[in-house]
Structures are given as C-alpha cells and as structure tokens.
Q: What sequence folds into this?
C-alpha cells in the first residue's frame, strides 16, 4: 500500500516535471518567435524611415535646385535689362551728339545769315538815300515839302467826298449783320485748327531684306497674283531696296493688303491658300477697326447715343476721301466748327456738333445709291432715328433740300469752311477716283461678272467672271464689249487695257 502511494507520488512528481519542461519548451519557442517578428517589424520600420528620410532629402534637393534656377533666371533677366539700358543710353548719347552737331551747324548758318542781312540793310539804306536825292532833284521839292502838299490834297479830297460818306453810313448800318456773321465765321476758323490731309493712292510696305520679295512673288508669280486677286490692288515689286509698293485708289483695299502682307511675311508660310485665309482674317480685323474708330470718334467729340450702324459709317470715313481730303478728318473738323459757331449764336452746340459729324455719311454707302449724297445721308439718319432737325441739316447742306432749322445753314457754312481752307482738297484726286469707280461700275454692269479691279492708275481693268456663267468664247467677246463701252462713254488719257479672267475652282473637305 505504501509502495503504491510512493509510486503515485513519484508519478505525480514526474508528470509535473514533464509538464514544466513542456511548458518551458513552448514558452521558449513563443519567445523566440516574438523576438524574430519584433526584429522583422523593426527592420521594416527602419527601411520605411530610411525611405521617408531619402524622399525628404530628394524633395529638399529639388526645391533648392528650383530656387537656384529661379535666381539664375532673375540674374539673367537683370543682365538683359542692363544690356538693353546700356544700348538705349548709347543710342541716346548718339542722338544727343547728332543734335548737338545739327545745332552747331544751324548756329553758324544763322550767324552767316545775320551778317548777310546786316550788309543788305546797309545797302538798302544807301540806295534809299540815293533814290530820295534823285526824286528831290527831279521834282524840285524836298521830302518834307512833298509830304505837306500831299496832305493838303488829301484833305481837299476828303472834304469833297464828305457828302457821299453820309449815304455810305446808311449802307454800313445795313451791312452790320453781314459783318457780324463774318466775325463769327472768322472766330470759328481761328479757334479750330487742323492739319491738311492729302490722300495718296499708294502705300509702301517695308521689308527686312530683298529675299522676301521672291517669296512674295512665288513660283511663276502665283503668290502675287493670288494676293492681287484677293485684295483688288496692284503690287509693284521693283528694284527699290527693302520696299514693295501697294497701289489702289481704295484705301481699304490697300490697308487690307498691307496687313495681310505683314502677317504673311511674319508667319513665313506664303502660298495661295494661305493668302486667301489671311486676307479673309484681315478683312474681318479691318471691319472691327472701323467700328472701333467710329466709337472713338464719337467719344472724342462727345456725341452720344449714335445708332451702331451710324457708328460703323463714321468709322468707315477713315478710309474715304473727298477731293483728296480725308473724310473722317473733314467730318471732325466740321463738327468742331459747328459747335463753335452754334455757341457764338446762342444755339445748342451738341446738336450742331452731331449734325456736323454726320453731314457726309451719304458718301460712304455700302452700295451705290441713285441720289445725291446729302439726300441719301438724310435718309440714313432718319432710318436710324436721328431727330428731324439733324436729318434736315444733313440733307440741306448742299441746298438739295429746303432748310427748316438754324442748324442747316451752320452745317452748310462749316462744311464750306473746312473744304475751302488752303491745302484741304484736290480736285484732281477726286476726278481720278471717280474715273476708276466708273471703270469698275461699267464692267460690273455685264452679267456673269463677279469682281472688277481698276489698277495701274486706271490704265488696266481686270474683270473676273464666273466659270459656270460664261464660256471661253463669251470671255473674249466680253472684253471687246467692255472696251467699246468705255471708249464711248468715258474720257481718259492714253488707253485702258481690259483683262477678263475666267477660272474654275473645286473645293472639297476630307473629314
């Protein structure tokens, strides 16, 4: 029994020892596993931290490089500005030296002229003394005696005419109103001073070098022909260095051609398709500039509330002339004169200025009317809701309509003042432009004609016809018919060459 108990106790002790050993082995394994996992996590965290540090380092490095680059750019810009200022200062120094030389030359010339004038004055005094001596010798009287006799004779003549002066006093009273009107006109002219404006029929386009001329002409002249056909001008490319002459009587055509040439040369792509594209774009730009010019003119003159179409017509005046005088400048000058004269007469200067600005709107129609420009201008003003007195002043400024307000004679007088001042107009230019317009209108009167351009100062008329409306045989006969009609109906120097152009175009789009 005791042995059994001892064996049981020993078994319990052995079991406890075995369980403890197993527990220790398991604990040791878990401890090693935990340590291993902790080491791996520490390594991951270490790598992650290293990556974060490296990323921050790279970001800082990129920021520093960017800052250095920006500073380098600023330094380069400052160096460029300093170079430009140095160049500008050198140019100013050269200009100052040149002006100094010119002033020195002018001073010497004035000194020489002063010396010459002094000598001539002394010579005149000597000649005057000699002439006086000759006259005294011939007349037997001294200068004082001759003067006394002349005064006595003038007194006698004045007494004899005293009776006639009484009647003249009555006439002077009747002429007082006329003198007052002249005074107002003279004061108006003196208070408004403008430059004379003479229109040219050519524009010079400057180029950097003569190599550009060949690119503008194109292979076998196709570029220059396309540009002339698209704009209706004549382009003269000759031996003139760094210049191309654009010739046309219509200033709008010349301006469109000049701007188109500028864009084509700057872009470098010059071929017929590109030319037509640029001309269409520039035409739109010129239309926008016309509207902007009209708005600016109305603002400068203080004329408000104009209809947008009237604003466009006013802007269009910039590209028209009347007897060689720029029409917009003439309208502005007339408006200012009307305002001054209306103020002198106690009338509303704003209405007078408005009527003066619009008095020639009938000269820039979109289509040729069958009536005088004054009547047509009055109808346009009435169409765009201008007041009746403004419309009447426009229509009556050439006595083609009965005057119903005091604005009408003011506009008529100021229009005459603006056009009659020295250097304002040239009848030759107006007759020349009318002849070119008549040439184009005669050709346009024939069926099938799409465009006409009078070039070479009216010595050649180019007529473009539709290929689907006229065949080759009709083209030849049309040239002869136009030539005969021009010969019968017009007067012109020399001869006029009529060139009829018929071409076929096919346009497709790849989508």
A:
């Amino acid at each position: 029994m005791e042995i059994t108990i001892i064996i049981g106790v020993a078994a319990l002790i052995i079991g406890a020892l075995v369980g403890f050993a197993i527990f220790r082995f398991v604990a040791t394994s878990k401890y090693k596993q935990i340590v291993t996992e902790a080491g791996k996590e520490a390594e991951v965290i270490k790598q992650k931290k290293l990556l974060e540090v490296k990323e921050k380092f790279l970001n800082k490095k990129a920021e520093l490089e960017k800052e250095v680059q920006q500073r380098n750019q600023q330094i380069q810009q400052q160096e460029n500005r300093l170079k430009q200022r140095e160049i500008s200062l050198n140019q100013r120094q050269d200009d100052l030296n040149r002006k100094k030389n010119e002033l020195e030359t002018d001073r010497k010339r004035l000194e020489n002229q002063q010396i010459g004038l002094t000598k001539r004055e002394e010579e005149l005094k000597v000649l005057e003394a000699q002439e006086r001596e000759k006259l005294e010798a011939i007349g037997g009287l001294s200068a004082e005696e001759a003067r006394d006799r002349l005064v006595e004779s003038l007194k006698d003549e004045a007494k004899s005419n005293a009776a006639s002066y009484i009647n003249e006093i009555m006439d002077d009273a009747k002429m007082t109103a006329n003198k007052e009107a002249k005074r107002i006109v003279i004061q108006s002219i003196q208070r408004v001073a403008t430059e004379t404006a003479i229109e040219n029929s050519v524009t010079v386009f400057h180029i950097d070098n003569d190599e550009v001329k060949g690119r503008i002409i194109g292979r076998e002249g196709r570029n220059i022909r396309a540009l002339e056909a698209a704009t209706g001008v004549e382009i003269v490319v000759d031996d003139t260095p760094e210049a191309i002459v654009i010739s046309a009587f219509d200033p709008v055509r010349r301006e469109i051609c000049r701007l188109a040439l500028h864009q084509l040369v700057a872009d470098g792509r010059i071929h017929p398709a590109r030319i037509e594209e640029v001309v269409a774009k520039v035409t739109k730009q010129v239309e926008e500039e016309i509207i902007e010019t009209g708005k600016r003119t109305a603002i400068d003159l203080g004329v408000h509330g104009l209809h947008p179409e009237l604003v466009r017509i006013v802007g269009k005046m910039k590209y028209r002339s009347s007897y060689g005088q720029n029409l917009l400048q003439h309208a502005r000058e007339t408006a200012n004169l009307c305002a001054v004269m209306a103020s002198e007469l106690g009338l509303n200067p704003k209405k007078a200025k408005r009527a003066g600005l619009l008095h020639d709107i009938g000269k820039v129609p979109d289509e040729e009317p069958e009536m005088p420009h004054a009547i047509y201008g009055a109808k346009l003003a009435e169409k765009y809701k201008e007041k009746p007195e403004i419309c009447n002043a426009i229509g009556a400024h050439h006595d083609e309509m009965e005057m119903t307000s005091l604005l009408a004679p003011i506009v008529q007088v100021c229009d005459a003042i603006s056009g009659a001042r020295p250097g304002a107009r040239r009848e030759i230019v107006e007759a020349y432009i009318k002849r070119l317009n008549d040439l184009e209108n005669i050709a346009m009167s024939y069926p099938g004609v799409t465009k006409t351009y009078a070039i070479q100062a009216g010595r050649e008329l180019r007529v473009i016809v539709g290929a689907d409306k006229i065949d080759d045989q009709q083209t030849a006969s049309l040239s002869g018919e136009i030539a005969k009609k021009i010969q019968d109906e017009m007067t012109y120097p020399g001869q006029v060459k009529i060139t009829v152009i018929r071409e076929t175009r096919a346009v497709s789009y790849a989508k």
Remarks:
- The chain has a mean pLDDT of 80.
